[in-house]
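Quick log. Single chain, no ligands specified.
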Amino acid sequence: MPSGHFAKAIHQLYAVRKLNAGTGDANLGGLINSLPSSFSAPGGSSSQPGDRAILSVADALAISDTSVGTLYDGLYVYYLHDSASTATATRGRLVFHDLAAADSAYQVTPDEDANITVRDWAGITITATVTKGYYWWAQVAGKVVARFRGTLTGTGAVGVGTYAAAQGAGADVGTLDVTASAANPTFTYALGDNIIQNYIGVAEAAPVGGALSVIRIPCRPKKF
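-> predicted structure:
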């Protein structure tokens, strides 16, 4: 775990506000911005970029705004969202590590990078929308709701692999795709590389084009 960052317990998350509600934190760490000089805040009481939370099924449900949707068990990370992005992070879409920012900023963008496209994905947005320049949580592993591109390449079914669609700017930015049952291309190393790098997780419900569906992301080493 990086020095200075905390794995949050559920009671250190938002007691008044659900984790998938609102549009993010305008101020770093949330509602409490500062304390008088005579007070010392305990470490972990205010969220910092790079902090993470590992939630069980019960914990995730307890801090879900079910009018937005249900959160599931998994790993969540607190990120800063790029204030100058073209797209806006919305529920179920991928966000990507912002290569223009220092790693220590834990800054993400909903825009797909022109050079490495979607390979450096950072997580999936869990709220209806996150305001540009705000801080908020994204899910990076576990069971999560993801948005699929308008027209799937393959046939959506339970158990198929899901992949970053890599559609660039526009309606399908940050979405996922399935390729199972699509025409089988001739294997090349470039194709194999794309399969490995763009893989996100396994579908736990049959994906439908242009809709949200549940997948499970395996935990793998990432930049957090």
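The chain has two helices and 13 strands.
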